[in-house]
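Lab manual, section 2.4: Encoding a predicted structure.

Procedure: take the sequence of the chain (537 residues), apply the prediction step described in section 2.3, and record the output as structure tokens. A sample record is shown.
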Amino acid sequence: CKDTMARMQAAFCASLLFLSTINAFLLAPSSLTAVSGRRQFSQARQNVGPALFARGRSSVGTRMQETAGETKTETPQTRKPKIAVVGAGWGGWAAAKALCENGCEVTLLDGLPDPTGEQPYLTPSGKPFEAGTRGFWKDYPNIEDLLDKLDVPINEVLTDFTGSSFFSPDGLEATAPVFSSSSFPQLPSPLGQVFATFSNFKRLPVQDRVTMAGLLYAMLDFTRDEKTFEAYDRMTAHELFIRMGLSQRLVDDFIRPTLLVGLFKPPEELSAAVAMELLYFYALAHQTSFDVRWIKKQTIQETMINPLAKYIGENFDLTVKPKCRVSRIVLSDDASAVTAIEYTDFSAGSETQVLDGLDGCVLALGAKGMKGVVSNSPELAQRCPELSRAASLGGIDVVAARIWLDKYVATENPANVLSRFEGLRGAGGTFFMLDQLQPDEDALWAGETPQGSVLSCDFYNAGAILPLSDQGIVDLLMKELLPAAVPGFKAANVVDSYVQRFPGAVTWFSPGSFKSRPPLETSVKNLVCAGDWVRMG
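Recorded output:
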């Protein structure tokens, strides 16, 4: 009886952690910013403005300005602080919003052709394209609040909460349910998750799932104090799994592929602390925290960024500079403050231009962008060793493909993960049925007569797929990976396709990387950082 009770308790704990894993990673796939969007917007909105104001207010001093032949004295009371925001992702736009709302004159620079989303990105045949399919979790209060303030009805731009499927060469491995619509009662976490998903795992034996219980200790321990967190950060996720007694089959058959699509690297190349963070925030907080919805029409840029850009532009002092790549941060003579930035304007014939008279600057960049700026800013590198360390961190390669078919292919769920297929070449793979997520098929086909399913497919940790030709990548999907997961793809033919490569596009949270991630506040008094990789402690 005691043995039976012990096994039941172990199975209970294992189901909890196993469920956490599938939802944190299975629901997180296929987005260059899916996991980080809420964090970037929240952190930048709440922290960037106050940090700049607190540290840089004194830098907005009296300034002389010549107008109409006379000299006019500008004081902190008569002149708006002039701030440059470098990077127009979630972090950059949130920083711009916070700064504008606090009375700043903001210039937002990005290399995108249209950071405002007014002009959607199109394929050569004129069809819509976006890198990755964005997921929005139930506990995304900042995004919901933003849409509400912009008078954008959330149900017009986001789908209902949907399930997801996980495929391997052996077939369907698991499904992630929608907890908020489950017939099970809303119970305290983790009871509800366990009872509602008892039959969702198809192949992995219970004895292997039971070994997941070892992570419960790590879940409670890794944030005990800063020293403990840093110890977990130095450890690889794979080493943690071994120490906690997870079975080899559990790691190889499930955790490794889910990490590849959740954090975009295998466990031996990931920080254990970051893996545990993701498990908590996207799995264990509440029973319904796992529920996810997707973009219902168009793209993130069109449905969310564009209304935000219009709101800021119509109500505040914002200038957006597209096709502009910032190359250098210019410091004052004593290197204590940013005074200007140099950037290349590719819309003006690749001319190098200067934005001067700055009172502050926000770097809303990833590792790749940070490397480009710091490597061309020797004074900044000398003054801010923390940014030099951040610039040394690596990025992860991503490949995104969109495919239009001549037949409709039925799938159990619109969001799907591919794992352990030899054709993945070590990458994580996802595919989304856009025709199931977005009811406006005319928009998906750009006015052409809809013929069949439209897929958004992505590969992460895709260094071995990156060199393939566009046709080679489409063939890999249509002739090998997709039919192995869903046989209905065998009868479908490609009508149109488009492939894009993004080398080093996603932040790599490698073991020991926490101390190298950029801080919110830098050694330059009027320079701050924003984004999902910023250290907030």
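Check your result against the sample. The chain is about 35% helix and 20% strand.
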